Write a sequence for this structure.
């Protein structure tokens, strides 16, 4: 059962962790993220689980745990496919590319770059469709007025 009051708390904690990571306060960010992840009173949405995995991967990357970071991003990628969030997928793939470059893993780097281009095209296509539908609704509403 999800606590509706949790979403703002979740968002605030995630932003706090991101700020701490930018300040290179990895230990503090890790502590906050772990306490958030261990909160047994809350059932996370898929998107929240993805966000937790992405941030944990960033922490692992800063701690030099690159293999663990990649594993977290791969899991996040699978969850984002289920969630069908192309924007989130693009963000995940970008993080993966950075890590593959750092690890000099050329094969996975090339495959991920190809996947990223496809995902960016899909994101652009969906954005265009969404804008077109929104414009059509506005035009339809105006026709009813006149």
């Amino acid at each position: 059962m999800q606590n509706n009051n949790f979403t703002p708390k979740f968002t605030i904690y995630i932003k706090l962790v991101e700020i701490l990571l930018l300040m290179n306060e990895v230990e503090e960010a890790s502590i906050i993220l772990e306490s958030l992840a261990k909160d047994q009173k809350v059932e996370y949405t898929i998107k929240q689980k993805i966000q937790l995995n992405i941030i944990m991967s960033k922490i692992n990357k800063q701690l030099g745990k690159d293999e663990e970071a990649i594993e977290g991003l791969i899991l996040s990628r699978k969850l984002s496919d289920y969630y069908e969030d192309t924007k989130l997928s693009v963000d995940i793939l970008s993080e993966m590319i950075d890590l593959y470059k750092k690890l000099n893993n050329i094969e996975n780097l090339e495959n991920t770059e190809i996947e990223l281009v496809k995902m960016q095209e899909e994101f652009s296509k969906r954005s265009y469709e969404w804008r077109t539908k929104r414009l059509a609704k506005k035009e339809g509403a105006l026709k009813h007025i006149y």
Q: What stands out?
A: The first helix runs from residue 6 to 22. The CA atoms of residues 46 and 83 lie 7 Å apart.
